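Page 42, continued from yesterday. The earlier attempt failed because a stray header line got pasted into the input along with the sequence. Redoing it now with the clean sequence only.
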Amino acid sequence: DPDAEYAEIIEIDLNEITEPIVAAPNDPDNVKLLSEVASDRIDEVFIGSCMTNIGHYRAAAKVLQGEPPVSTRLWICPPTRMDEKQLKEEGVYGIFGIAGARTEMPGCSLCMGNQARVADQATVFSTSTRNFNNRMGKGAQVYLGSAELAAACALLGRIPSPEEYQSIVAEKINPFASDLYQYLNFDQIAGFEDEGRVIPIEEMPKIEDILGIPAGTLK
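This time it went through. Structure tokens are written below.
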């Protein structure tokens, strides 16, 4: 809105950012340049959470495709069933399977540590937005970064140098970027058209019908 008033305006000159930035253990504000953490060992990688979209999984698959099985434990968990369905149809899940990844039911998964947890004391690279102590696993040390960088960590078993990472991106992602980062719309995929629709109150199912009890039982 043109009349909007903001508490604070933060301007970032992207020309000054010459390499990826990650959050280091165990605080989202503990940010470091990739070159500062390069070569740090990674035990487990999580590509998931509500901060990802379908393009991130396609890009991660491109990084993994044609390479040996991953050197870490790799968890894949798209945020929605729609993403999962489309990724399976495109063959992306097949690439993850060949790479040795474990695919989770869409949802929070390791981000909240509720569907599963990493091994005790593991060092993790995650695409989620929080890396507080013990959130993903007991004593876990968690880095936060992009899905593309996460996939590279899974392959190498460590955080790559900026040069290694840029080489991977140039070879495996950039040539296909216009196709990889095509996003989805609920109303354009069969079976999901009504997922985001606002349902009028008169069309809402009655609780008695949901529970299978006689009408008027609930007062």
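Notes: The chain has one domain: 17-180.
Reminder to self: strip header lines before submitting.
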